[in-house]
Amino acid sequence: MARHEQISTTELTKRLLRAEPRALARTLTAIERRSPGVDALLASLHEHTGNAHVVGITGPAGSGKSTLVAALTRELRARNRTVGILAVDPSSHRSGGAILGDRIRMSESSTDPGVYIRSLATRDAVGGLSRAVLDGAALLDAAGKDVVIVETVGAGQAEVDVINVADTVVVVSIPGAGDHVQAMKGGLLEIADVHVVNKSDRPGAQQTAAEIRNAISLSVGDREGGEWDVPVQQTIASTGSGVSDIVHQLDEHLVWMLDHGTRAERARHNATTRIRWAAEELVLHHLRAGVDSFDAAVAEVAGRRTDPVRAARDLLRTLSASLAEP
Ligand SMILES: Nc1nc2c(ncn2[C@@H]2O[C@H](COP(=O)(O)OP(=O)(O)OP(=O)(O)O)[C@@H](O)[C@H]2O)c(=O)[nH]1
Ligand SMILES: [Mg+2]
To answer: Which of 150, 143, 79 is nearest to 120 (CA)?
Structure first.
């Protein structure tokens, strides 16, 4: 790496650790694009991570997630906690992040240096987005945010993957969405640490909350002692009603995880995922960069002069040789 680049990485790291908004914005863009140099930057930040409470908020489009995030942010700021927010927009044709930004901007948080908000989108495959979210959350963690909130529209497996980066997963439902409760089974229902029935100013909120409680007990069975008791909380995010209860439940969940070793378990899960992605990327990059040797291997295997496993081993051997270079 060139000397001036090294200096700028050090300087940028300092600014990031001070949570300077421009440095954060620049780095999040680099994370989205997976620009060269971003790995070195993240490497220098890694030792400063692991302190934030990462909260994932998911649920159907329009269920009030952004409104809830804005209300939660107000509650957290009232408790003097700093907040980083990533609004994930997998398709990028919607503007969830922008809407969330508007809500925050309309509120007191707009000029508050204790709040940093950014939407994340990437045209890459879902794995790419998950990785950007993990890296983005780590960045805001290193920047000293006490709570990092990730908002994502929950529809399928892709969102389950994205939200898995969180310490605490909040799933938002709305009244009268019986189909939604059905659809959650085998996915969001089980990964929720806190269920929220938002728009509880509408009819049927109590019934929806009861349906969710019922679905939880059916899927999990009778909880034995030592298991987190998933709360189902009704809120009206637009007025803030019930939101301080959510903050309380988030705190309780964090304490529970620390007491039960679950947080360390999630940290290991997180580390496993990140190592795998990094290794896969190195291998794929190597295979793409070495098109010639890859083509040669294809010819050898097709010509029955070698077999696929031996060819793969040979390719990986040259990879490890190239990694060993300074
Ligand atoms: N009646 C009622 N409306 C609400 C409540 N919370 C949010 N809304 C409204 O619901 C609409 C959608 O809110 P958002 O916060 O943008 O919902 P979202 O889930 O973030 O939407 P996407 O990010 O687009 O998926 C807005 O018009 C909000 O004002 C609530 O508790 N009650
Ligand atoms: Mg939204």
So the answer is: 150
SS3 (DSSP) at 225: coil
Kind of pairing between the strands at 168-173 and 115-120: unpaired
* Spatial distance between the Cα atoms of 326 and 315, rounded to a whole number of angstroms: 19
Residues with CB under 6 A from ligand 1: 61-67, 94, 96, 99, 153, 198-199, 201, 236-238
Which residue carries 């045209």 as its tokens?
A: 123
pLDDT tens digit sequence for 65-88: 999 999 999 999 999 999 999 988
What is the pTM assigned to this prediction? 0.88
Q: How far apart are CA 11 and CA 17, in angstroms?
A: 10
> How many Cα neighbours within 13 Å face the side chain of 136?
36
Mutation to probe ligand 1, out of 66, 92, 188, 200 (largest number of atoms < 8 A from CB): 66
List residues bridging with 83 in a β-sheet: 115, 147
CA-proximal residue: ligand 1, atom 28 (nearest): 64
Structure tokens at 107: 């509120």
DSSP string spanning 85-117? EEEE-SSSSS-HHHHHHHHHHHSGGGG-TTEEE
Give how far the C-alpha of residue 175 lies from the chain's centroid of Cα atoms, to the nearest Å: 26
Burial of 26 (0-12, 13-18, 19+ CB in 10 A): middle
